Amino acid sequence: MEDNNYRHEEFDDCFLCKHPALRHILTGLLIFLGAFMASYVISDWHFKRMYDPVYQMGRMDKAIMNRERSFDKMENRAFKQQAKMERNMFKHEQKMAKNASQFVHVEKNADAYKIVIDLRPFDDDEKNVEVRTQGNTLIINAAGERNSRHGEQIVKYSQAFAFSENIDTDEITKVREGHNYIITVPFND
Question: Helix 20-50 crosses helix 53-103 at what angle (to 10 degrees)?
Fold first, then answer.
């Protein structure tokens, strides 16, 4: 039981008890060495892990996957922009075809084809309309300028008419009536 009862008088010859400042310095030194050893061990583990080839391969795989993902995103973005441009071009072509059908009409009579062109989009001048033939095909090219709220626009029209019947290219007539330019293409008998 006496062992459990601590009495200071029995340890009077203790070196650290006589020098309390040295006790604090040694305690601080032990804490510093413990912290230094802990940080050394942690940094050693970290650098061993950083230079481990398996770990580096995993990091490289991750970096490659991230790069591929970013390229895929860029490609998808470019594809969407291209699709949007194609849709807009298709809408524009449909609008132009609709506009073209408004000023060019084709009629078939018993003895001839009659093509009526409205000259107003082509500066109301029949000289802006070119008509030529190649075999059984009649080619019409027309161009003109018009002013709109968006500025000046150039209107172009080009159409090739392939006829199933034999046509008489020498007897094609072109007549202007008001704002209309009438091209008559007779059949060959």
Answer: 50
Q: Which of 110, 121, 118, 111 is nearest to 154 (CA)?
A: 121
Q: Which residues pair with 170 in a beta bridge?
A: none
**Cα–Cα distance, 165 to 122 (Å, whole number):** 30
Element (H, E) at 15: helix 15-18
- Tell me: the pLDDT tens digits for 140-161? 888 888 777 777 777 788 888 8
The DSSP element (H or E) to which 162 belongs, if any, is strand 151-162
CB 186 within 8 A of CB 168: yes
Question: For residues 6 and 14, what is the distance between their CA atoms, to the nearest angstrom?
Answer: 14
Write down the residue that tokens 């989009």 correspond to: 121
Query: In this model, does residue 46 exceed pLDDT 80?
Result: yes
Task: Give the chain's length.
Answer: 189
Q: Tokens for 33?
A: 């060495």
Mean pLDDT of the region 56-61: 87
In whole angstroms, what is the distance from residue 179 CA to residue 158 CA?
A: 19
Name residue, tokens 């490609």: 75
